[in-house]
Amino acid sequence: MDPRMSAKFPFLRGSLEFAQGNSADLDSLFLSDSFLPARIRGRERVTDALGAGEVTYRPLMRDYDCLMEVMSYPYARMLVSVIGDRFLTKRYALGEAVRMNRLLQGESQRIVADISGELGFKASTDESGIMKMSFPDYLTLSGRLKSIDWKLINCDVRSGTVYISKDKFSRLMQNAFQDKIESELPLMPPDEYLPVLKKDAAPLEAALNEAKARMSPAGGEGMKDEYLPPCITHLLDMSMKGLNLPHSGRFALVTFMRSMGLDYDGIIRIFAQSPDFDESKSEYQIKHITGELNGNDPYNPPECKTMKTNGLCYEPDELCGKVNHPLNYYRLKANHKKRDQERGS
Ligand code: SF4
């Protein structure tokens, strides 16, 4: 494979062959001075993903630089693995997948179809350059995309085949690649390399904590009651007054509080006011919802539409008309307050 293609798409089989053909192995990657650029770039891949949410790409000319770029990819994956944080794994997988999507935009339909094949999704093109994929694959990959553009009603579906533009197809491949990376991690090297990896991982852990705080709706400043949406304020009030919350209300409250950065102790304190409070039962429910019980992904707080369906939307105010999610309400209100303070009002 052309070294520049390998640098762009280091996850392809041809890129692995390019690396093997240049005697790049774990020993060189971890211990050789000549592979230091690959280790530095590997760290950069992770910080890019944590920061801008996209691993950067620079066009490279020299074969050596391309090799470093290719080897930085497994190094980044091992760095993420040794840190072992679910948020980081997801963020990193997203950063790599967004990068790939951007690069696919500049490739021909044939190359895009070849790459999708390596990601496990068969595709072909017709004479007009439209891409074709199976209907079940489309459903699998588009299910999490909320925009109306992805709804079946807006798709060209004929005889079990979806006809789709290259740009939209590449966007679906972003999801496929993100899932693939998440499913492949953790990827740990043999123990002898762990000291090198752990040394490089230490500054990334600090960056990870900063990113988590920055990205939480509370912006790392802790939850402020004044920004809470009416529905959550009402659920909190009910809980504090010792009134019984319906299951959907407890679920909404726990998922919202977790998203705001509250830990188990913070959340259980809220429910301790309830008349039927039973710590072991509440502990089970909270840890199940937050994913602590079985190591699963935590549940997300319900959006306004679901809150309304469950009868939990309570006295919506003017700001509610501008949001579709209670977390967005919090963010928007906090932003308004910040803006007003900067203006000195
Ligand atoms: S509109 Fe949304 S944010 Fe506002 S009270 Fe209803 S559910 Fe909560």
In terms of quaternary structure, the protein is single chain
Give the N-to-C terminal Cα separation.
61 Å
Number of domains: 3
Largest sheet: 4 strands, antiparallel
**Helix content percent band:** 55-70%
Bin the strand percentage: under 5%
Distinct ligands, ions and cofactors found in the model: iron/sulfur cluster
Q: What is the strand tally?
A: 4
Mean residue pLDDT: 91
**Uncertain runs with pLDDT below 50, 5 residues or more?**
none
Spatial ordering of strands, largest sheet: 1-2-4-3
Tally of separate helices: 16
What are the secondary-structure elements, in order, as H or E? HHHHHHHEEHEEHHHHHHHH
Form type: globular
Description of the structure:
The protein has 345 residues and is mainly α. It folds into three domains: 3-84 and 186-212, no CATH class; 107-171, no CATH class; 225-342, no CATH class. 59% of the residues lie in helices and 4% in strands. It has 16 helices and four strands. A four-stranded antiparallel β-sheet has the order 1-2-4-3. α4 (36-51) crosses α5 (63-83), α4 (36-51) packs across α6 and α13 (264-271) packs across α14. The radius of gyration is 24 Å and the shape is globular. The mean pLDDT is 91. The site of iron/sulfur cluster has 12 residues, from α11, α15 and α16.
Summarize the structure.
The protein has 345 residues and is mostly helical.
Topology:
Layout: H1 3-8, H2 13-21, H3 26-31, H4 36-51, H5 63-83, H6 86-104, H7 109-118, E1 123-125, E2 131-134, H8 135-142, E3 156-158, E4 161-164, H9 166-184, H10 194-215, H11 230-240, H12 247-259, H13 264-271, H14 279-290, H15 304-309, H16 326-342
The chain binds iron/sulfur cluster (SF4).
